[in-house]
Specification:
heterodimer, A: 396 residues, alpha/beta, Peroxisomal Thiolase, Chain A, domain 1, 9-stranded mixed β-sheet, two-stranded antiparallel sheet, 13 helices, B: 135 residues, mainly beta, 5-stranded antiparallel β-sheet, 1 helix, globular
Chain lengths: 396, 135
């Protein structure tokens, strides 16, 4: 217990990822719609919210928390823009928890709407390179990476996989197993885009090579979506109808932006984040009943398992081979299907892992419920294996 | 269908201009820290301790391929016409790592650990990219 206060997740909201989004909304509109759903889930009132965590929104590219507060019609004691890419969701949850424990605020919205805005009249469609900010004047990566084609996360993560396979024992079949078992979980998730499409290891290995050594089925499908949680005091969460999920440990570590300048391609930032999260929670790795790890690519999962300390360095492949990672298996992982099975709902993709573990700890996972789960572990991975966040979540 | 965007080329800044000017002259120039350690990419101070100023050292242009991928599809529109091509990270003899393309080499012959040397691609009258090929 820190400062006499503990923070807990009380409710969730999640939209099923879609390739084509039928109902365009501005960012502020989508934030408000998600807020309504998350508050309803938590059984809380908008007036209780005094903390806003968001990313920059299309219609609020500056002063985003103020724009959100005004649009929702509330006043807040904490406003935060998080810019950690795939680690935004996990990064928001611990920032909200820390602010609540510090006594700065009492209830936060951590929401990641990611849907297209209505088309702007008169604006012409453009073909754009997705540059991850490298197209800004003066951006180092615009000069030293982008001219060589290193502008898409695919290539960054592929070079992690290639180097990992050079340094350690890892067969393509083992990576494929991560995608296959995630997909099996997705078959039971009505929100998963691939809920009707089982795959085999052979399907993965025979899917087109996109960025060697990663095949198409090892890469998330980009979608639109939205998801988020309400974080409040444990005391307030206990007065809702749902089991409070205490944010009992967290850590964050950032080492680089472009993978070329990473201290290591094969030992990833989660090492320090996980150590801090488990030390803070006061539990060991063996206390985890269910894990949800950011799976933009299969390789991300394997190295995250290993560098989170669930097995020795270099043993990630053996761990994946020896364990059944399905919700019904001995080491349930990404029971929502992962983003590989669910589709990556844009910025909301990382939040799907938070929602996954909260859903399990609250006993609301239906046919893919892992049984009684007390503690879960969630990771977020942003950019190019560059910013990572670890959370230990605990049912109260 | 909109036109594909043009090739992405570097726009040098005051801090990086000496590197790109050297590349124009087919030389590989590396910045080094106040302690004499080469680093990459150029900054107006030493990364890690922020000691002001940039000294430059001429590099051998030799290194080994640290990792690579084959971009089979051109994952950004500007690269679609070039696919498949090799994106690599070269670890220079002097220590720093650079992003590059591996050229003058069949894709199936590219290996991590292979010895490589810098070659200079004069893209136009102003820009030269530092590329690497097998030794």
């Amino acid at each position: 217990m820190r400062n006499g206060r503990r923070a807990a997740i009380s409710g969730t909201a999640e939209w099923a990822p879609q390739r084509r989004w039928d109902t365009p909304m501005f960012g502020l509109e989508a934030y408000g719609k998600l807020a309504r759903e998350a508050l309803d889930d938590a059984g809380m009132e908008l007036g209780e919210i005094d903390g806003i965590l968001c990313t920059r929104l299309g219609d609020a590219p500056m002063f985003a928390p103020a724009a959100v507060a005004e649009y929702l019609g509330i006043a807040t004691n904490f406003g935060e823009v998080v810019d950690l890419g795939g680690a935004n969701a996990t990064g928001m949850v611990w920032r909200a928890a820390a602010a609540i424990e510090a006594g700065v605020c009492d209830a936060c919205l951590c929401l990641l709407p990611s849907v297209p805005a209505p088309p702007q009249p008169g604006a012409s469609p453009r073909t754009q390179n997705w540059m991850m900010g490298a197209d800004a004047w003066g951006a180092p990566h615009g000069q030293f990476d982008a001219p060589y084609g290193l502008i898409n996360p695919n290539s960054h993560f592929a070079m992690v996989a290639q180097r990992y396979m050079y340094e350690y024992d890892l067969a393509p079949r083992t990576l494929a197993k991560v995608a296959v078992q995630g997909r099996e979980n997705a078959l039971l998730n009505p929100r998963a885009i691939f809920r009707d499409q089982p795959i085999t290891i052979e399907d993965v290995l025979s899917s087109p090579m996109v960025v060697d050594p990663l095949h198409l089925l090892e890469i998330v499908m980009p979608c639109s979506g939205g998801a988020g949680v309400v974080v409040t005091t444990l005391e307030r969460a206990q007065r809702t109808g749902l089991r409070p999920v205490v944010v009992s440990g967290f850590g964050e570590h950032i080492t680089h932006k472009s993978i070329t300048y990473a201290p290591s391609l094969t030992q990833i930032p989660i090492v320090a984040a996980a150590d801090r999260a488990f030390a803070m929670a006061g539990v060991g790795r063996e206390a985890i009943d269910v894990a949800s790890m950011y799976d933009c690519y299969t390789i991300t999962v394997l190295v995250t398992i290993e560098d989170s300390g669930f097995c020795a360095k270099g043993d990630g492949a053996r761990f994946v081979e020896e364990h059944d990672l399905r919700f019904s298996g001995d080491w349930p992982l990404n029971t929502h299907g992962g983003q590989l099975g669910m589709g990556q709902g844009g910025a909301a993709g990382g939040m799907s892992h938070v929602v996954d573990v909260v859903t399990q700890l609250q006993g609301r996972a239906g046919p893919r419920q892992v049984g009684s789960a007390e503690r879960g572990y969630v990771t977020g991975t942003g950019g190019c294996m560059s910013e990572q966040v670890a959370l230990v979540l605990e049912g109260a | 269908m909109a036109e594909p965007p043009p090739r992405i080329l570097p726009s040098p800044t005051a801090a990086t201009a000496p590197f790109w000017q050297a590349a124009r002259e087919h030389r590989l120039l590396l910045p080094r820290t106040a302690d004499g350690e080469p680093y990459f990419y150029p900054r107006p101070f030493s990364p890690g301790n922020l000691a002001p100023g940039t000294e430059w050292v001429e590099a051998s242009g030799r290194g080994v391929l640290y990792s690579y991928t084959v971009d089979r599809r051109g994952t950004a529109p500007a690269f679609a016409a070039r696919a498949p091509y090799v994106i690599g990270i070269v670890e220079l003899e002097e220590g720093p790592r650079m992003t590059t393309n591996i050229v003058e080499c069949a894709i199936e012959d590219v290996r991590i650990g292979m010895a490589v040397e810098a070659v200079y691609e004069d893209v136009d009258d102003e820009v030269t990219l530092v590329q690497f090929r097998p030794v």
